[in-house]
What we know:
two-stranded antiparallel ribbon, five-stranded parallel sheet, 213 residues
Amino acid sequence: MRFSVITLFPEMFTSPLGESILKKAISDGKIIIDFYNPRDYTLDKHKKVDDIPYGGGGGMLMTCQPLFDCLEAVKKTNKGPVIFLTPDGKRFSQSIAERLSKKGDLILLCGRYEGIDQRVRDRLVDMELSIGDYVLTGGEIPAMAIIDAVSRLVPDVITDTSSHHDSFSKSFDRKKEYPHYTRPEEFRGMKVPDVLISGNHKEIEKWRKGKLR
């Protein structure tokens, strides 16, 4: 699966993508992540990519030309939908992550400042997503969250079956998880429930479904 990320700050992704499961998935070629910086596409000699909004108001907006040219370049190698990360987008969820994991390609557009020119949203954006009802300084952190959530659903990124039992997964009707225990069986007077060490898988499954929270 390929993620093409449009961002003014690609360096922000270095650490999250250089550790743990995502690092291995990239190393194994299960996912591909490439970055495009709108500053590389601006025609302004000072590499300027923002300007004041028409009609007044605070802040700056990312301008049309660099984003149009950048997105057109991305689309030559990535045929997936363009997803704009914005606080007023649809709330990202596990069900959306599952649908996106089947797309094959995704283009993630990270806004900055007060956002982007509406003409980019009208002409080039296919989906607008938010990770919560709050405002961040840009779309990079939401993009990281989406990459993480979607990547772990790509076949063979997680090699066991644990992703099928995630919180909010279809197998558990979008509910949260049941309690988990590991060794030792008793710690400071607290014991693992007997059913979990009984070896009776039918009763274990019944207990887990009854404990969803």
